[in-house]
Design brief:
This protein is mostly helical. It is built from 13 helices and two strands; from the N terminus they run H-H-H-H-H-H-E-E-H-H-H-H-H-H-H. The longest helix has 26 residues.
């Protein structure tokens, strides 16, 4: 249960702490609603979707500029929109609860994005272009990723040969991705000690560790254990399926076998949502998560504020980069 709740809350899992003894009871548990998960205290120390996409766009510009030094055309983004860490973690957290209307239409599948007519130009690339892009991407990967991890693996005794040059030009240790992150953080104080290029990954990891510890404590709370059992009983009665918790139900491999939801999947997804509302699963989990995250926030307030300021400063720099590029 602890690992599952860690995945639910911040998509990493693993870290766990025992609940503190003698702590006051949390405030009133929110009533069940159809709105899904609430904002949590540590959310404030991750960049917003808009900010992270702005930083991704600037980093993509830097990374492609780096690639061109090695002779690549780099005509297409190498850091896509909505690929940021915080965005992915937020989506995994939100996947715990699917509004019933969405469940009836899509089951556990994510609603599709833009339809083909909204794609710029509404044209499909010819086979020759696809193959050319595939070959270029394969060739540029060592330059994009660098040789740091391969070097670590070699030093650990694995039979790996790091590629440190490309056509005679030295590849940055952390590749063009690392160079892009470093450029975006240039001149900024890094809030968390670490070795990641530019310090952004270290800042993310710090907040994620706090969230993981809070999630581990929440998972051990008797009220969470009890409400999860009530949800599982409700879900089993409605569907005939035995699942330990909402996350494992939503990630059932059988729902991933097709691009379209089956009638059985839609039935299960609706039950998945209704049972959460019936037992107030999210109300209990969210109330206790807020409690434990507030405690973490109080203990690490100074460092967390530095992380928040760091993300904001990088976003401002990214805005300058993207505005300059578009102008």
């Amino acid at each position: 249960m602890g690992a599952v709740l860690s995945v639910l809350v911040m998509a990493l899992g693993g870290c766990s702490t025992a609940p503190g003894s003698g702590d006051p009871e949390p405030g009133a548990v929110p009533s069940p609603t159809a709105d899904g998960t609430v904002a949590l205290p540590l959310d404030a120390y991750f960049p917003t979707r808009k900010a992270e996409n702005t930083m991704s766009a600037a980093a993509d510009s830097f990374a492609r500029s780096c690639l061109r030094r090695y002779g690549f055309a780099a005509e297409h983004p190498v850091i896509p929109e909505d690929s940021g860490i915080a965005i992915q973690l937020r989506e995994m957290k939100d996947a715990l609860f699917v509004p019933e209307e969405q469940a009836r239409r899509h089951g556990f599948h994510r609603p599709s994005g833009k339809s083909p007519q909204h794609v710029k130009g509404n044209t499909r690339p010819d086979a020759e272009s696809v193959e050319k892009n595939r070959r270029e991407l394969q060739a540029m990967l060592p330059v994009l990723n660098g040789w740091h991890r391969a070097q670590e693996a070699r030093e650990a005794g694995r039979n790996v040969r790091p590629q440190k040059t490309y056509h005679g030009r030295r590849i940055p240790e952390y590749g063009c991705f690392g160079e892009a992150d470093t450029r975006l953080s240039a001149g900024l104080d890094q809030p968390v000690p670490g070795n990641s290029p530019g310090g952004a990954q270290d800042a993310f990891n710090f907040v994620q560790r706090l969230r993981a510890h809070a999630a581990g404590a929440v998972a051990e709370e008797p009220r969470v254990v009890a409400v999860t059992k009530r949800w599982a009983k409700c879900y089993r009665k409605a569907t005939g399926l035995s699942r330990a918790n909402p996350y494992t139900a939503a990630r059932d491999p059988r729902w991933q076998r097709s691009s379209e939801p089956s009638a059985k999947e839609i039935h299960a997804a609706v039950a998945h949502t209704r049972c959460q509302l019936r037992v107030n699963f999210l109300g209990v989990v969210d109330a206790l998560t807020v409690r434990h995250e507030k405690r973490a926030e109080a203990r690490h307030r100074s460092r967390l504020r530095a992380v928040r300021d760091f993300h904001r400063a990088r976003t401002r720099k990214a805005e300058q980069v993207t505005h300059g590029r578009s102008g």
